[in-house]
What we know:
Elements: E1 8-20, E2 28-37, E3 40-46, H1 47-53, E4 54-61, E5 65-69, E6 71-76, H2 92-107, H3 111-127, E7 130-137, H4 140-150, E8 153-160, H5 171-185, E9 191-199, H6 205-217, E10 222-226, H7 230-240, H8 244-250, E11 258-262, H9 268-277, E12 280-283, H10 285-290, H11 298-303, E13 308-310, H12 323-338, H13 346-353, H14 355-360, E14 378-382, H15 394-401, E15 407-412, E16 415-419, E17 422-423, H16 428-445
Helix pairs in contact: 3-4, 3-16, 5-6, 12-13, 13-15
Zinc ion binds near residues 225 and 313.
Amino acid sequence: xxxxxxxxxADIVIHDAMxxxxxxxxxxxxxxxxxxxxxxxxxxGDADWIAARYRARxxxxxxxxxxxxxxxxxxxxxxxxxxxxxxDDIPLKEWLYDHIFPLEAKFSSNPENLKAGMRLAIAEMxxxxxxxxxxxxxFTDQLGAVVAETGMRAMLSEALxxxxxxxxxxxxxxxxxxxxxxRNWKDHPLVQQAVAAHATYTVSPEFIVKAKDLARRxxxxxxxxLSENQWEVDTIREMYGATPVKHxxxxxxxxxxxxxIHCVMLSDEDVDILAETSTGxxxxxQCNMKLANGAAPVPELLRRGVHVGVGTDGxxxxxxxxxxxxxxxxxxxxxxxxxxxxxVSAKEAVEMATIIGAKAxxxxxxxxxxxxxxxxxxxxxxxxxxxxxxLYNVYSSLVYSLRSSDVDTVIxxxxxxxxxxxxxxxxxxxxxxxxxxxxxDISAFL
Length: 446
Ligand SMILES: [Zn+2]
């Protein structure tokens, strides 16, 4: 620094960490620092250079820690934490129609239950290094306030069905609800509302097109569960004479602002369509495995340049919201199913949980990498433990040996939300009390 350069102010400097930027060059700075001003990253660079350039109101010691972008969970149903473990090891259709839908009709129709489930989910996600999640569930307009109070970042989508849902009348009524929710949360710094149709077998072509039109009018994402299993493919073929992907292409709803969730059963033509339309994909390997749906052709989608993000899906089919767990499973699953050690490398897995995930949901201008001008969503991971030593390759460590319980500090939008593994803004005992009360009622219903 020359004497003519003046000292700059920063609210927070994270000093002397191993900084994995996930920027275009995928820079890894062995002794690096990040300066935060307000809700944004002001600078990323060599630790001595940042120390000479910035005077920080607060300095966080990054020694023996990896500093990286917060993980992005591109698909979940967060309030479903209230159903964790209620129905496991059951065939898919029976699981959905005999267990999940009846439970939801009774307990998801009370927004207070979902608020409690949402708080539990956010606590779990923050403590495991997730800083942003894309959700599809009910009462999203009301649940936005819960997300905002915790300081977490989320894109919430009310689930559209043709028929009534636990939260509203379905069809036009749900579209009106979504339209109002989007307007109510427009320009909020943490919460955005978007549009979701549940699936091609629960939403008619008329309402899929109307939902996508609504998303286009608001310039926001449209998401839909798509090609999750063979039963769905057979059903849609019978109903519309096409694969689920081809069916949506014919409806002209696939583009870079559409997120197709699952995409397990894809024909070669389906892969072509997703690549050519720049449709994003949400991949949930643990859910796909647990429900015995199969292995999505992720290596092929990545080869074709499709933006594939990672989502845990809801905990009724996972049963946690742990992204570390998810990316390790993902990388191992595809090696096994492809009989190839080179597919879904550790580096690709980290990319999918950060910058590629951000691209899949149209958020890469704001998050997904540590770069000047992006939102300050970052995590510090403690590598001063037996299972993390030695550290030769940061991607290998993150995917194959580190754990979510190694996450030490979590910052969202410039706010420190977790420090030394403690939630600073949430009262966990209050969250547990609410959850136990709801679980008591649900147990009596089972
Ligand atoms: Zn889902």
